[in-house]
Amino acid sequence: MSERPHPGRGELRAFLDRDLAPRDRFRVRIHLARCPRCRKRLDVIRNEGERVSALLRDLTPTVDPVEAWGRLVVRSAGRARRRQRILLPLASLLPAAMTASIFLTRQASGPLDEMDPRRWLREAENAGDDEVVRDICCADHDGGGLFDDGLFTLSRPDEDVRVVVVYEDVDGSGTLTPGDILRHVSSRPKR
Amino acid sequence: MSVRRLFEQDYPALVRFLYRRLGDRDQAEELAQEAFVRLLDHGPRRPRAWLYMVAANLARDAVRGHLRRSRRLRILRNELDAASAPSPEQDLLAKERAQVVRAVLDELSERDRLLLLLREEGLAYREVAEILGISATSVGPLLTRAQRRFIKSYQDRERESDVGAAASRQG
């Protein structure tokens, strides 16, 4: 049976640093017990490491961790305040930005087919109180595992629901928009 | 581990790591604080390795950005220290040795320098590997090579200064 090769310098370094896997550590230990040459190599590597540590010790600043922790707390709080000052105004603009985005999406959609319920939605919005719009989004109506199905209904005050539309909220806007896919349209509303 | 505990455990080591890299105690503390503030913001999964990685990057940027200026300041500060507080011979020798060590560190490649300094702070091989973007098994071989280069470079400088001193005595 052939002998295992001598461990490399890196492996001996890792052995000294106790950073070898237990199995490898055991193997190196057994080898060292039988190999005087590797024991010498190990000593050289150990001495080199100790020399480096001794030289680097000359570059050791004095640090007061308690005082430093206090500074960190102040600094961290200051940064949180600054972030708040920037984010709060932006957060207050968010609802307006979302409304504008939805409005622009609808406006940018171009002319819609007369049979398209999204056109009815637009007309209903323009009609004011004359039309009652219910847009419930989103649930998993199609059983696909995603809660992206919306239910849109249109009616007049004190009347039965005249239109039922099931749609897939493709753009994730939470409402029926021109980009959404229509899965079911019950009928055309009579005006 | 709580941030407070990590701070108590690793802040002095992090400052030392940065000081050895930068040679400026105030800047080392400043960057160590910055690294901890970022740690509080990000809450990484392995905070210790992350902390040293951020600190190493901050130090690298600082060295790149202010190399010339910080060297000037360092020389100036050393001159001021020497002028304002005359030290006993041992202190003076230690200071001279520290200057040589710093110069030798500056000569090393970034990878060698980080290997030495990170290992010196007791980071595990896998943490060092994560920070340097190398495999954990190559840390040992690379570390021994870095240690050899460091010692050889230090010895060369010592020899140079001995030769210089002998020449000035003869002159």
Structure description:
The complex is a heterodimer of chains A (191) and B (171). Chain A is an alpha+beta fold and 191 residues long. Chain A has three domains: 9-57, no CATH class; 63-108; 117-185. Chain A has five helices and four strands. Chain A has helices spanning 9-16, 22-34, 36-57, 65-107, 117-127; strands at 132-139, 149-155, 161-168, 181-185. In chain A, strands 1-2-3-4 form a four-stranded antiparallel sheet, with helices on one face. In chain A, helix 2 (22-34) packs across helix 3 (36-57). Chain B is mainly α. Chain B folds into two domains: 1-86, no CATH class; 88-171, Orthogonal Bundle (Arc Repressor Mutant, subunit A), CATH 1.10.10.10. In chain B, helix 3 (47-84) packs across helix 6 and helix 5 packs across helix 7 (139-170). The chains are: A alpha+beta (191), B mainly alpha (171). Chains A and B meet through helix 1, helix 3 and helix 4 of A and helix 1, helix 2, helix 4, helix 5 and helix 7 of B.
Give the distance, in angstroms, between the N- and C-terminal Cα atoms of chain A: 97 Å
* Strands of chain B, total number: 0
Shape of chain B: globular
Taking all Cα atoms into account, the compactness measure Rg of chain B is: 18 Å
Strand content of chain B: under 5%
Distance, first to last CA of chain B: 62 Å
Overall geometry of chain A comes to elongated
**Beta-strand residue fraction of chain A:** 5-15%
Counting copies of identical and different chains, the oligomeric state is heterodimer
Number of helices of chain A: 5
Percent in helix of chain B: over 70%
Overall average residue pLDDT of chain B? 84
What is the chain-wise order of helices and strands of chain A?
A: HHHHHEEEE
Average pLDDT of chain A works out at: 79
Largest sheet of chain A: 4 strands, antiparallel
* Low-pLDDT sequence parts of chain B: none
Counted up, domains of chain B total 2
* Largest sheet data of chain B: none
Major sheet of chain A: order of its strands?
A: 1-2-3-4
